[in-house]
Every structure is written in structure tokens, then in C-alpha cells.
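task queued by scheduler; priority normal; single chain, no ligands, no partner chains; default sampling; output format set to C-alpha cells
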Amino acid sequence: MEIITHGTFSAALLEEKDFAPAKADPEAFLKTIVDEGCTGLIIPGKLISRALPLMKSGLLDTLRERFAHAAFRVAIVDMPGGLIASAVKTLIKAYKAGDSVRFTGSAEEAMALLASIPSAG
């Protein structure tokens, strides 16, 4: 996981090696991200097929519970098309997370966009 900062906003850029610990213990994984000062996740589109089972394993429920009163943001960078995109959009809609999830073309664009979303307060 790489921590990226834009002004005062920090996000964790997920890497393939992050999926096993996140699936094994979503709460501990999120604690690590929060302890790093992050209020966002960036998921590369090339890894989204690996992220779908992770999201279904309880990470989204843990995110929702932990950040019920805060603005935790997610960006999916360079989302592939087809069935994967459809599955991701269906999952986002089912979790009513549309306001917190953005689709962008690059990590830089993701950071600027996520940083511009007002924090809940």
C-alpha cells in the first residue's frame, strides 16, 4: 500500500499484496489505513477483479460501520468495462455508496477529486 497525499487529504493506493490482509481481517486493515492518516482508498482498475471478492467479504460493511459519521472516499482508477464494471456499479448501488465512490482515469485525478469532496461533520 502506498500513501498518497494531496494538500491535507491522504489516501491509500492499494496494491495486489494488500488483498490478503484486507480479506483476512477487514477491521485491522482499515485501522492500519486510518493510523496512517488516510480517509480514502484508491483501487487500480487492473486490480478490481481481485477487489470484488474482498468487497463482498465484509470490507464494505466494515467501511460503512467504521465511517458512519465521517466521509471516507474511494476512487477506482481506470475501470475496465464489461461485466466487471457492471458488477462494481451494482455493488456500489446496493450499498448506497454512490456519493463516496468515484471513477477516474489516473491516481492524480483521483486524489484531486477525492480531496475536493467535503468531509462529513
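post-processing summary
- DSSP finds five helices and five strands in the chain.
- The radius of gyration is 13 Å.
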